[in-house]
Write a structure and sequence with these properties.
With 103 residues, the protein is α+β, with helices and mostly antiparallel strands. It has one domain: Alpha-Beta Plaits, CATH 3.30.70. It has helices spanning 14-29, 47-59, 74-78, 96-99; strands spanning 2-8, 33-36, 39-43, 66-72. A four-stranded antiparallel beta sheet has the order 2-3-1-4. A hairpin with a 2-residue loop joins strand 2 and strand 3 (39-43). The longest helix has 16 residues, at 14-29. The protein is flat and about 55 Å long.
């Protein structure tokens, strides 16, 4: 059984950003791993274990936030296609004096 936590916090104020960092620290303390920004996942061996961890996360939710917790079976999770691309090195710009001349 997998628990997927998807969340969004208000980022326009300092307290919203601080609450998001506290929530992320709580997720990581509970054994969640980051998939992408705003999405964390954790494996639980049984449904009872998943319920315990889910209740711990529910107790730490800040009122002014959006949090969705999903339980996904191993079979469903194994059918997810994930692509983790890499970023290319940035192009090196030519020296301006060598190639670019004005007038």
């Amino acid at each position: 059984m997998w628990i997927v936590a998807i969340f969004d916090f208000p980022k326009y104020c300092k307290s919203g950003r601080q609450n998001m960092l506290l929530f992320i620290k709580h997720l990581e303390k509970e054994g969640f791993s980051k998939i992408q920004k705003g999405m964390y996942v954790r494996y639980c061996s049984t449904a009872a274990n998943a319920k315990v961890h889910k209740n711990k996360i529910i107790s730490s939710i800040i009122p002014r936030s959006t949090v969705c917790l999903l339980n996904i079976a191993d079979k469903e999770f194994s059918e997810i296609y994930s692509h983790f691309g890499y970023s290319k090195e940035p192009k090196k710009w030519p020296k301006s004096l060598d190639l670019i001349q004005f007038f």
